[in-house]
Amino acid sequence: MAKAEITGPIEGEVQVVAFKLRDEEYGFDILNVKEIKGLTDITRVPFASDFIKGVINLRGSVLPVIDLKRRLGLLDTPYTSDTRIVIVKSEDIEVGMIVDAVTEVITLDTEHIEATKTVSAGERSQFIRGIGKMDDRLIIMLNLDEIVGVSDEIK
Amino acid sequence: MDTNQYMEMFLEESREHLDSLDDGLMTLEKDPEELSILNDIFRNAHTLKGMSATMGYTKIAELTHDMENILDLLRHEKMAVTEDIIDTLLKCGDSLRQMVESIGEGGPEDVVDISEVAAKLSALVNSGGQASAAPAAAPAPAAPAAAPAAPAAAAPAAPKSNALEYSDTDRGVINQALDSGMRAYHIKVTLAEGCILKSARSYMVMNTLDQMGEVVKSVPPTEDLEQEKFDQSFDVVVVTDSEPKAVEDAILAISEVDSAEVMDVAEELKAEEAPAAAASEAAPAASPAPTAAPPVPVTHTAPAKADDKKAMAAAAKANEKKLKSGQSVRVDIEKLDTLLNLVGELVINKVRLEQIGITHRLTELTETLEQMDRVTTDLQTVVMKVRMVPVGQVFNRFPRMVRDLAKELNKEINLRIEGEETELDRTVIDEIGDPLMHLLRNSLDHGVEHPDDREAKGKPRAGDVGLIARHEGNNVVIMVTDDGKGIDADVIRRKAIEKGMITQDEADNINDADAVRLIFLPGFSTAEKITDVSGRGVGMDVVRSKIETLGGHVDVETKIDEGSVFKIKLPLTLAIIQALMVKVAEEMYAIPLGSIDSTINITQEDIKTVKNKEVIVLRGQIIPIIRLGDILSVPRENGEENDDIFVVVVHIGERKAGIVVDNLIGQQEIVIKTLGKLLAGLKVISGATVLGDGRVALILDVSALM
Questions:
Q1: Is B68 a catalytic residue?
Q2: Looking at the structure, do residues B559 and B595 belong to the same domain, yes or no?
Q3: Which domain holds residue B628?
Q4: Confidence class of residue B134 from pLDDT cuts 50, 70 and 90?
Q5: Are residues B227 and B238 in the same domain?
Q6: How many residue contacts between A and B have a Cβ separation below 8 Å?
Q7: Which stretches within chain A are classed as H helix?
């Protein structure tokens, strides 16, 4: 289910929640996005990985929040009124992602998404699933499983 | 068939059946004459067989089938219940349980070698066949009679043994049919051995017969057929125009049907009406006493079948009873957690509404909210109650363990279980089993004396071991008692000195009660010899730490030659605890009240340094202090530290420590939430809770701090 990131409800199309980190535009498959929330009180969690900003209360359950910029190795910017927490679900892990602003939900042609291999692979390439093109915009599709990656980062 | 979706159900139900199998066998051991228990046991084994075969677990099906064989002999009194048989059957149950658990863990079913128990079973079956002479001869000749190869030839002889009871209505229908030139047949359908979908097959048979004519009745009735409440064969009475041969062929065309014996009802009725003594005796087949068994072995099938029917009737009745008494739903605990979360959120939102009402002076709103307050409080209690499970769920497994252990130790034990209906939170129930098991083992091994020694002391030969649960205020108390030899405080003192756990001085200064409590220290074991049962020195301290992690407390009271009482005090629930809220800079933390000794207010000068570590002296005791802000690297505005210092003195077991915080907020009931997978295994933080204002506060794991 969660693997179905490239296939959308319509064959050949994928709906993407697009959002901004600094000046770049990124996207999560809409199927992974549960809701978008304004910034709320975040409780710092000692001993957690540095990219984990803390935990929030989402309707009574406690949810970890990842600072996506820090996770992707981007420079910090202060929070603004546009800052949002995107609640996503990968496998059975639910987590919030702090983004600078949510722009819109767009429909991308799967043909217009280039796999990362052809794109120059940088340090954070494991987090990137592909790059989608729409008109003159570039949307970096993120690999949620890797970003949440319970594997080695935690502990 | 995709069996995965049924897996959960299969596992749950298998466990249940194995539990009642165990229970049944043990009741039977106490009361070997009680044949109704045998029927229950048989049904358990039978259901297990059916389920496992459907799921494709042939080993389980095989073993249960072998068990059925012997159980069948037992319930038909062809064999007497012996201890050996019970032992073997219990062992079978154990093997089955291991197989089921292995399947549950995604492993193969054949984790245990069942050949030994299977061989033992068949040996018992064979010996049973030889031992009891007259009735035992019956099963062999009876078998061919039940499934005759040539029904035509068997037909004239059959009515005697196979005759059904016909009610007046049945007779009416049959006679009417006969008058109108139709024929009535009594058909005995036997399904193939190992047939899995018995209900489906029986349905197909009934359907076929329905198409050929009219089904007058079936034994057992159709509902029972649908629920597979029959053994290998069933009887149908049908009126039709077809020839007997045609009926037989039609039924035999259905797969997994072993034989179809077609008999003429007209002849049966005639035979019944005839004054012949033999016929009238065999006809009311439902009630003959086993002792009145006909002299000829072959006709033994009749009473046997009657027993069968009785068994099935009893089974059906028992089933009905179960359905009525157990009107419950299985719910995933996660769903309940979600429900609890939502209720919590509701409460928080209610608080916000109250705030609005107050700031804007909306009296109507505040009044309505007062109503709502009552509802939400009730809702919260109900949700908490839903998570509660009777301790009986854990207690149930102990009679078996105690029985086995008593045998192994050559002791006589009466296990007394009380208060099994006392309810505890599901999470506690899951964890409490092991500590209880250990305490029971301990009582049996170290507490209760050998029967001869007990007699010498003027006690009854059988030791009394109690497992008692009851409410005590906001706690549940579980006690493990025995009337054994008690714990000798002096022996404990000596051992503790030997092991270097205390000095002679200390030993002289502690009272007996405290001396006995030394058994809870790590590395203490008083067993003269190391047994399989207990005495590896890892016992009591493990029990104690387990119970303390559950937020509970364990203590012991003992009197020489009168016995010991181990008392476990547990909170009603783990989901809600009392905690002290503390503040470090701007961060709020919760410290579980269970591990807090006291709170004190000191100044910077009270802190001394010993071996480079900060300590305070509290009532003559040196206590290391932990600066929470430093440990958790809490971000601080500089120069914020003031001279007044709050210290929360906590303890884990015997160790104490003082936690330095900036401020004490107060005591509060908090609902514990997990931090989720992503943050699992975090040290020092054991969970989180949502505060009244909607913010999240973390709960400290005191033992990890020390």
A1: yes
A2: no
A3: 576-705
A4: very low
A5: yes
A6: 86
A7: 68-71, 144-148
